[in-house]
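Homework help board

Subject: predicted structure for assignment chain

Our instructor gave us this sequence and asked us to write out the predicted structure in token form, then describe one feature. I got the tokens but I'm not sure how to describe them. Can anyone check?
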Amino acid sequence: MTTTASTRESYGKVLLELGRENPDIVVLGGDLNKSTFIHLFAEEFPNRFFDLGPAEQNMMSIAAGLASSGKTPFASTFAVFGSGRPYDQIRLGISQPHLNVKIVVTHAGLSPGDDGISAQGIEDLSLMCALPGFTVIAP
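My token output:
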């Protein structure tokens, strides 16, 4: 029997597994921890989880600092909030110095549907695709 799960639920479960294998993984959330399923990681590893609330610029700057200190940060929120608002921090603090930061966002493009217009955008994909060294995947 095949089971199905949303991509964000699968992400949360796989992130938890990766956290068990690699103690250098840290996770940063932007006020949408249950929606992005990173609460699963937070419950098991509260000392490696940082809930920064709706402060995406700070989240990306902190992720850059953690990466430059040898950690592997995963920064997660909705795509529209994890691309446009912190774009300058991502461009200057993560992309240009080629830091190992994983920006994993959900609700890319127009896919949010019922979550409303503030969670939708069409520019999120193009902004991130324009950055050197980034691999952008939108399942």
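Reply (TA_rk): Your tokens look well-formed. For the description, you could write something like this. Strands lie at 25-29, 49-51, 72-78, 102-106. That's the kind of observation they're looking for.
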